[in-house]
Amino acid sequence: MATLKDVSQCVLDGDLDEIKVLVQALIDDGTDPIAIINDGLIAGMNIVAPLFKSGEMFVPEVMESADTMNEGMKLVKPLITDEDIPSKGKIIIGTVNGDLHDIGKNLLVMMMESRGYTVIDLGVDVKEEAFSAAVKEHQPNIVGMSSLLTTTMMKIESTIKQLVADGVRNQVKIIIGGAPVTQEFADDIGADGYSDDASTAVELCDLMMSEQNSPEELSA
Amino acid sequence: MAKKFTKVAYTNLDDFVYGSCPNPVTTKSGMVIGGGVVYPEINFTLPGMDINDVTMPKAATIYSNIIEGVLKRAAELYAPGVLIEFETLPDFTEHPKYGIEVNRILLNGMKEASEKYGLKTAIRTTPNDLREFSRPPIMRSGKYWETMLELYEQCAKDGSDFFSIESTGGKEIHDSALVKADIRLAIFALGILGCNDMEFLWKHLVDLSNANSCFAAGDSSCGFANTAMVLAEKGFIPHVFAAVIRVTAVPRALVAFEQGAVGPSKDCAYEGPYLKAITGSPISMEGKTAACAHLSPVGNIAAAVADTWSNESVQQVKLLSEMAPIVSMEQLIYDCRLMNAATVNGQQLMFRDLLVRSDSALDVQAYVLRPDVVMRISTELVKTQDNFLRTKLAAQLTVAELKKAIIEGKVKSDKRDMKWLDKMEKAIETIPDDPQEFYNEMKSVLDMDKFIPSEYGI
Fold this sequence. Notes:
CATH architecture of the largest domain in chain A: 3-Layer(aba) Sandwich
CATH topology of chain B: TIM Barrel
Oligomer: heterodimer
Mean pLDDT of chain A: 91
Strand content of chain B: 5-15%
Number of domains of chain B: 1
CATH topology of the largest domain in chain A: Rossmann fold
Order of helices and strands of chain A: HHHHEHEHEHEHEHH
Strand order of the largest sheet of chain A: 2-1-3-4-5
Radius of gyration of chain A: 18 Å
Distance between the termini of chain A: 48 Å
Number of helices of chain A: 10
Structural class of chain A: alpha/beta
Distance between the termini of chain B: 21 Å
Structural class of chain B: alpha/beta
Helix content of chain A: 55-70%
CATH superfamily of the largest domain in chain A: Cobalamin-binding domain
Number of helices of chain B: 17
């Protein structure tokens, strides 16, 4: 008989065929779909994340695990409403105006999704106004911006100015990253956080979300 | 009519050294690249700033200060000559008037240095490949294609010595191949999309250079193999995958030479030793002195058969001693002095082998740059003239070479390397020899929203 632990292990192993069998078996046994998600699929990804951080797993293996989780989610999702799907928070991510580099950004998207975040990926060469419009439309907790060039990093600043001008800056936390970007630059332009790779960016978002959800923050 | 390379350019491995090659190139100022001396190649970029009509005067002043500073230091250190690379920022290619203005500033600085110090210089102009700004990329027409050609043509007319580019054909698919460590997808992106685009692009660049007394120098697989190297350095993908991608990118870069490029190939094309082995043309390389731009596991070995030695890029920022480009200039000159002194002393081969030995056993990416490995694989690659088959073969040979080296203890390896090499070997074996058949097989896994087949002639 399949168990939630088997599902977690299957996600860790990245076994796309086996996950379908296991999740379907649990559904047929009447296991709570939310438990399958939280204690099986996402629990598996929660094992993957520290292994990746410690260098024991490569990105392709993390992606296989994420794909496996998503394959399991496909079977569970029809059984629950969208509101019931657990989400750690919502983040909008994009590479700024004039910049096409997106490997780091795409890694972050994949890792955020696999850690249970709802991610809206705006893509590359995202204009300042597009970031602002997306904040208004999706009401995210966090906005993530990436730049790989010394000239386009200034577009991060102009995007923050756009968010301020449109009155939505204070609704969100802003994290930034990319080769020329530093903590000092983040401080100078008024970003809330900086990360030098996708893995630590996820931890930064976790921290921001926990602060946002803390009693002190909630009462503020 | 494209050139064909049916045999390697060297019969004796001991002749495969830095500073000289069978087909040297002479610049307008008389520098003979590949003629016996290794020259420094300096590259630089702006500090963080916007580029627009308002800020361009400031950008122009910064470039003017840089060229004046680096060439003054080069003269003070008695450099035998300096190759300058102007690798444009995207705004400079999108708005050619900006790029043309900066190129002229650099040419003017070179002229002044010649008059003032008698310093020989040459310039490589490297516009950006902005075709990927259209998503999916439009590779053969449109605004970005036109502005790129406009910039090339005017810069050549103004006096540039060399054309280069880090072209991006197939990158939209290759990026996915890298993060998935999917060698089949990588071979499709490099061997079909990349090679097809290189044929189209470099035919145009060679025609343009021939019409304007300029040399078509060469391309770089920067967006492909260097991205792999950086991802491997971060621990995101296996080092063996990055090493295999490096050599798998060779046939793509070779297409520029088949179309008429003559070198020196682009500095960040670490696949350069293979190009030199096959074409006999000079190459530019970068290693330890490019750590200002990015880290690498090939700091010394990259210099082993280099003809120009580059810093890749550095921002105009102040360091304790001087502005960063001047610091880079000094470091490059001293590196070159040492190599050239060894040559004069009859110790060139010994010095080459020290550069090789100091790196090659420590990382698989360094191992595949060993001159003997380069020559062995190159000798096999020239036996086929089909770009796709050559790409598949490059991957196959590199996997076999690395497996053997790891088993024999010739190179340090991660405990997971053999698993990844086995995985790649099996995946490559499943690739058919017919590119159309392979394309048909790949259709089910390709994201057809990401690329337009007709833009690649398929």
